[in-house]
Amino acid sequence: MPLELQQNEESSLLCLEGLIDIACAAELKKLLIEALSGAKEVRVSLGKASGLDVTAVQLLRAAAREAKASGLEFALAGTMPEPVLKALGSAGFHEFPVSAGISQVSGVG
Amino acid sequence: MSTVGSVDQFRHSFCEEARDVLVDLESALLELNENRADAELVGRVFRGLHTLKGSGAMFGFDELAAFTHNLETAFDEVRNGRLAINSELIDLTLTALDRIRVLLEDNAESAAAEAGARAEILARVAQMIGAPKTVLSEGSPTQATSPAGAIRDWHIRFAPGADLMRRGADPFLLLRELGQMGGLSLRASMAALPPLAELDPERCYVCWEMVLATAASQDAIQDVFIFVDDCCELTIEPANPSEDRGPGELLKADATARALEEHRTEGGGRRTYDKADNASSLRVPAVKLDQFVNLVGELVTVQARMSELAARRDDPEVAEVSEEIERLTSALRENSMNIRMTPIRGTFEKFRRLVHDLARDLDKDVELTIEGADTELDKTVIDQLSDPLMHLIRNSMDHGIEPSSLRTARGKRSTATVHLSARHSGASVLIGVSDDGGGIDAEAVRKRAIEKGLVAADAPLTEREIFALLFQPGFSTAKQVTDVSGRGVGMDVVRQRVDSLRGTIDVASKPGLGTSVTLRLPLTLAIIDGLLVNVGEAYFVLPLAVTLECIELTRADVERANGKHVANVRGELIPYIRLRQYFGIASEPPAIEQIMVVETESGRYGFVVDEVLGDCQTVIKNLGRFYRHVQVVSGATILGNGRVALILDPERLVQEAVRTLAHGPRGRPVAVSGPGRKRDGP
Question: How far apart are CA B523 and CA B153, in angstroms?
């Protein structure tokens, strides 16, 4: 499964693997809404992602904004693969994920 | 709409569009062959190749993109005056288009041979343009096209439209292509992003502000967006060198994005986003259109029942609503039929290549002229026209048109003409294939038909009847079988296909002057103008186009004919067929029956029915596979009272009835003679 949501009472961890693009955009939106509605903090792991298209970036940005407005913590867990960061940079998303309003924590990757 | 698993659908759409582009490219190349200095045609070829390359790369046809890139480079050289158009380049490019067609088919079996063929073409292209080497596999095509010249800065603002992502386009790939043209600094703005719950996950809300430093022209930059320009907002302006191009400038993107979003939501919806002219055309799968027409057909049926119910009730309010529904349904039906109508241009243009190649193979000088290419007819009819037209053109070029030397000796222009034409004639369309060749030798056709046992040696045949023999299975007067024609198969195919389209073929020929074949086809296969008749409880529809008149048949008339099924219509003897007898309908006939006189290829015949109920325009329903062998019925329709009416095929019915009733398998043997004043029937 490229998208997997693990939840407990306190936190939600959304693991994204492989190419996260328009083909799974609707599913990603659903899981993000689910993650935001059931926890105090949401972590997204992109350590195993091979690429993100614009739909994925938008959804993560919108989720981060929503979390902030609701007083939830929304952060990237672990590090992102360098090629993915580079690809996002050359598409104008410099300093992702910070530029998308997503803070970064270490630990899970 | 979900995009999951729809990549194949986009690839399929790309293939369809690419085939259209190939047809246009072929046509442009052949025109260019005639007018080699026409810069507009060179531009058309270049743009076609560029579209194939760009959209091919976008949909994962990397080999196609790389292959096309090299052809594009050649035409870029032509555009820039560094390479002259010659026959070799035209032929090479035409051959390359054939290879692209194969690439679209994605046939793994021929992959190795195809790769070799492509490499050979590319080597010859490289030789022509004097390039040291060509790109033979995946790569970054655009890099090589960046022309040398002064580098300047361009401001580019790119805001994808609502459907850009759904159409399979990826803005990141476009940005990458731009980046390959020079130095690109860019910033993405997400200011227009709606709240998560309202966000359409398959739409791009991001817009980009960019500065590109490149030697490429504005047209070249625009070309990067060529296949998404109908679903995005794009501005490309030369940057003022004195402007600050730092991050401050790019930060203006946020404000632009907000303004853009306001513009998008003006009028309360996102639909205002796309440019007004975006809606000028839309590609819809034919199957969806068929479903739509089918549903309209169902609606027409229900509406007819509604009208009948309303007529039975004495309620002015119900009658008013019923009339309104009838008016709207009628307009809807007309509209739905119009949607299926497409110009025949695409089919005609395809034959330019055929004529070009055949002329080369046969060593003849032939030009193709086209008339009435904008004539519209039902897509189903158009789809089935290619084969018959191809056989007619091949036949015409192989057997009709004389070699140039003979033409000159006969005092004719050495360049022969094949003329394709289309025009409307009532509810039919006339498609013509004519040539100025040697014409058909009617006597040779007759002799050959006698040899083949198709007609009796002493049969008196009119010229029209003789020419009709050309379409008999296996008939050929060709002295030798060539690669092109002469096996006597083609004309039979023409006949079968035209029959299946409910059409007719007319041949006219003058020895020494040429031949003209005219196909008369119905505008649409989905609807029929008919005459509703009944025999007892059974209802039938006869195509209005072939019905001539209706006459009464009394018992006294029957007695006067001494048991012969023949009616005297103003001195002409018309044989008739009793539908009651043919279909085995058990009820008693009324005292006065009606004969519907119809015109068929075998002459005039009458169908005896109980009553003629009136004309009707009905949507044809297929009878389904189970009844596919029942050839006398071309379909069925559902009447307002819920009953089914069979749509008769008079041509086949006459042939079949004459054959079966004469031998009496359905009842007692009856005498059926041929049409009056013509010849004796079977």
Answer: 55
Angle at B350 (CA atoms; ends B94, B74), nearest 5 degrees: 25
Name which of A1, A21, A22 to mutate to probe chain B: the one with the most chain B Cβ atoms within 10 A of its Cβ.
A22
Q: Which residues contact B200 (CB under 8 A, 6 or more apart)?
A: B162
Structural domains present in chain A: 3-105 (3.30.750.24)
The CA angle B325-B329-B330, to the nearest 5 degrees, is 120
Strand ranges inside B71-221, DSSP E? 152-160, 183-189, 207-214
* Average pLDDT value over all residues in chain B: 79
A58 with B5: Cβ contact below 8 A: no
In this structure, are residues B446 and B464 in contact, taking their beta carbons and an 8 Å threshold? no
pTM of the shown model: 0.53
**Closest C-alpha among B343, B394, B398, B395 to residue B370:** B343
Residue of B103, B4, B17, B10 lying closest to B59 (CA atoms):
B10
In the three-class reduction of DSSP (H, G, I as helix; E, B as strand; rest coil), residue B27 is classed as helix
Between B256 and B592, whose confidence is greater? Answer: B592
Whose CA is closest to A90, among A66, A54, A64? A54
Contacts of B244 (CB under 8 A, 6+ apart): none
What is B95-108 written as a DSSP string?
A: HHHHHHHHHHHT-G
For B8, name the nearest residue in chain A, comparing CA atoms only: A23
| Complete edge-to-edge strand list for the sheet that includes strand B566-569 | B547-554, B592-600, B603-609, B572-578, B566-569
Query: Smallest CA–CA separation between A75 and chain B, in Å?
Result: 16
Chain B contact for A27 (CB, 8 A cutoff): yes
Report for B236-245, B523-532, B606-615: range of highest mean pLDDT: B606-615
Shortest Cα–Cα distance, A98 to chain B (Å): 13
**ipTM summary value:** 0.92
Instruction: Find residues 184-243 of chain B whose CB sits inside 8 Å of chain A.
Output: 186-188, 190, 193-197, 199, 201-206, 208, 210
